[in-house]
Design goal:
By secondary structure, the protein is an alpha+beta fold. It has 5 helices and 17 strands.
């Protein structure tokens, strides 16, 4: 469904919360939070990364593969019914079971009529202490896409993708007006305390840079709370195409609702025509891992 109403403004909702260790409780909790976001006026609602479960990637354990869901499947069916009822777009990050032994970290985009208009499989998969995602997820193979919804053209990337300017650029070249990053990022309990604020500021800076360099709205919604030895820092965030901070969440449960004015995209790109001045003839080196080797 394209933006048939030619909407120039929309409210976006970001839901940041803690997670239970039971999928059904998490689903019911998020359904209620989606309803509350709708009451606050949100038309596009983004959930945090892997919202149905606690962050199981803190260790490698085959028992956690049982948490995965088929897409489409029972979970997306329930969210589709909710999206249609509320006439909202829902962005939901799921642990996808593609087939036996093949899994992805996948986000689905459900339009306001209840139809799944697209899905994105996380492309950049980390493998760090307490973030052992390579054990669970195959790298995405759907590319970087944008999808028309009732309320605007959106692209979804996921967490570790945040650190790669190429991903945001390719999403923009697909026509995205808004880029969403469902996220699960935080600190280890034994982290160097001096590094914590530096890490958080670096994270915010990356999102702001994506917004400015591409002339798009950027949103990241992050979970909160302590799970095992991980403390998720919340701070869900949104920037407009000029890099203006639209909202910065706390480390508590929140529903953040942001006013989006699409006219800012054209205004920013007229003043800073980065897309016009790109030297697409000179970027072949990006296809190399490093140098010319």
């Amino acid at each position: 469904m394209k933006n048939e109403e030619n909407i120039s403004k929309v409210k976006v909702g970001l839901i940041q919360t803690s997670s239970f260790n039971e999928k059904e409780k998490n689903l019911e909790k998020h359904i209620e939070l989606i309803r509350k976001a709708k009451k606050k006026g949100a038309k596009i609602i983004c959930l945090q990364e892997l919202f149905l479960t606690e962050y199981f990637c803190y260790k490698e354990d085959s028992k956690y593969f049982s948490l995965a869901d088929k897409i489409p499947g029972p979970i997306t069916d329930r969210l589709s019914l909710l999206a249609k009822e509320l006439e909202v777009v829902i962005i939901a990050s799921l642990f996808e079971k593609r087939t036996q032994g093949l899994y992805h970290n996948t986000s689905v985009i459900i339009d306001a009529d209840g139809n799944i208009v697209g899905k994105y499989r996380k492309m950049h998969i980390p493998d760090d202490p307490m973030f052992y995602e390579k054990y669970y997820f195959s790298p995405g193979d759907l590319g970087f896409k944008a999808f028309d919804t009732k309320y605007g053209r959106i692209s979804v990337l996921v967490c570790w993708d945040q650190w790669y300017p190429e991903a945001a650029r390719l999403a923009t070249l697909e026509g995205a007006q808004m880029i969403f990053y469902p996220t699960a990022i935080g600190w280890g309990k034994k982290e160097d305390k001096k590094m914590m604020p530096l890490q958080l500021e670096a994270w915010k800076t990356m999102h702001r840079s994506h917004a400015i360099s591409n002339g798009v709205f950027v949103f990241a919604t992050n979970r909160i709370g302590q799970e095992k030895d991980l403390v998720f820092w919340g701070n869900s965030i949104a920037y407009d195409p000029f890099g203006d901070l639209l909202v910065n969440g706390s480390n508590k449960e929140e529903i953040l609702v942001i006013d989006v004015d699409f006219s800012k995209i054209e205004k920013m790109r007229q003043g800073w025509p980065f897309l016009r001045d790109r030297r697409i003839d000179a970027y072949k080196g990006l296809l190399n891992r490093f140098g010319n080797d």
